[in-house]
Amino acid sequence: MKNMFRGLLLVSGGMVAGALISASLAGPAKQGASILPLDEIRQFTDVYGAVKQFYVEPVEDKKLMKEAISGMLSGLDPHSAFLDEEAYKDLQEGTAGEFGGLGIEVSADPSGVKVISPIDDTPAARAHIRAGDIIFKIDGKLIKDQSLNDSVKMMRGKPDTNIELSILRKGSAGPINIKLTRAIIKVQSVKSKPLPDGMGYVRISQFQERTSSDLANALESLNKSGNLKNGLVLDLRNDPGGLLNAAIGVSAAFLPKGSLVVSTKGQIEDAKKEYITSPKDYQVVREDAAVEKLPEVTKTMPIVVLVNGASASASEIVAGALQDHKRATIMGTQSFGKGSVQTVIPMRSEGKKTAIKLTTARYFTPSGRSIQAKGISPDVEVKDTAEGNFLDFDIREADLSNHLEVPEDKAAKDAKKASEKPKKAEAPLPVKTDASGITEKVEPVKAKSETVKKRPKFYRYGDADDYQLNQAIDYLKKVDKEQVSKNAKASVIELESGIKMKVEPVKK
């Protein structure tokens, strides 16, 4: 699989979340030299024949083969999938930042479809659908037994048509029914605004084809207005990821040229690569050249990067690179932990454009850390609000069925399990016998639980009452601007929330 294009992002109105995808443009996949597993193939043909002969009603060969392929891929990990003609078209349209649907990134779940992240300024975001919600009915139909692609097709549709989602939400007493109106989703990847005291704010909601150039324009504008001299807040919360080249371009805006951003490791040689802050690794459209022309202040100003449990894939690449190079303070909560690369491989299909999306590599931060099923740990943990975290922001890659494990972590986990001593059997519960002779176990009386904190209110990222943003601003106000110089010494500052943190000097 040579001549890999550097990125295609799945950003349909609902699909596997946080997709970081490389697309092979070398044509249909070729059969390798591996020996065919004859016993397994014989078993497959026996099952195929039994279905054709004995199923309650006739089934077309095309349907059986499609379902077999889909099952083979979906059983590997949550991010590998078969893309039929419609899904493949949706993927290609999504990279341009415009598509039809509801505006949510989702993954498969045993109960239906799990929301990884709503996309800013879409019907889903306006309806307050949240990360961690599980969609179990669409227009009254249970979807637990159908494929993710089929559920996505149900959610997509013509603009201005209505749809009802039934969702399960952690902390809610029962199902929630939400009515939405489909729309053409035009994602504005980069938003920015000036902050008080010579600071700036940039939010990236997804990593798309034009994200790098849009970021460069935003930074130029903030610099001209004097809103970079005292620092920048880079908001990657609820950003499900996207194009690999866009993540490298964003990192290049803040790191010296030639800095390592991310490396990938896979089974084949093409999957073993290092990506650096060089135009050859991030420039896709002509406008991306603006990244290299950014003023020096973008390489030296203090930066706070905001992340949360729905920051995935490309977001984690940027956060991990800036953290490893000590270029930014990462603030918020543990990120999602999507540390794998998907390759889109076109398939032969009787003139139809279909493909498979296959996990082909893991990615690693500059220091060699794997983020897969772990995520980026913030330098300063700050909950969503002063009252605590949103209850449904605790869904991570590690919670997804068949998630990819890091071999070293799996080996360590197995070794720990093998060395653990068996737990002592718990003492049996006391029993009592009533006058009729019936014996029952006496359950211990449980202490009353502490009063549950009031659920944090919903707010839009970047608003005046955005708690995490306000903590980031407080940090930038208090950090000694000389900390960013090469020879500065570390110091300790205290935020308004009472959090104390050690501030390290930033490498130039």
TrEMBL record:
Reply yes or no: does the keyword S-adenosyl-L-methionine apply: no
Source superkingdom: Bacteria
Q: Where is this region: Disordered?
A: 406-429
Q: Spans of biased composition, class Basic and acidic residues?
A: 406-426
Q: Which GO terms describe its molecular function?
A: endopeptidase activity; serine-type peptidase activity
Which family does the record assign?
A: Belongs to the peptidase S41A family.
Q: What is this protein called?
A: PDZ domain-containing protein
Native species: Parasutterella muris
